[in-house]
Amino acid sequence: MSTAQHRTATERPRPVTSATYVRLGSCLLPVHVRSAVVMVITAVLGCVVFVGGLGMGDYPLPISTVVDVLTGGGTRLERTVVFD
Fold first, then answer.
1. Which of 61, 43, 36, 46 is nearest to 70 (CA)?
2. What's the whole-model pTM score?
3. Cα separation of 6 and 3, whole Å?
4. What's the rounded Cα separation, in Å, for the pair 44 and 18?
5. pLDDT tens, residue by residue, 22-67
6. Do residues 42 and 66 lie in contact, with contact meaning Cβ atoms separated by under 8 Å?
């Protein structure tokens, strides 16, 4: 048997990936960098799809106009198309 297969019951297996720890108050939270990057990319892509979807429909609007309306600008008609 190899050493890896011959463990005692009290030994804990080593983690497969390493984590970076972030301190929040008195707590230490493990943060896996790869998982965090994947979550950020997924959130950004979700926002792009959401904004793009708002501009589609019977009265299509460019993405720049949708972003302008969502940040408080745009004409009354553009706001109606995006929000209603």
1. 61
2. 0.59
3. 5
4. 25
5. 888 888 888 888 888 999 999 999 999 998 888 888 888 898 999 9
6. no
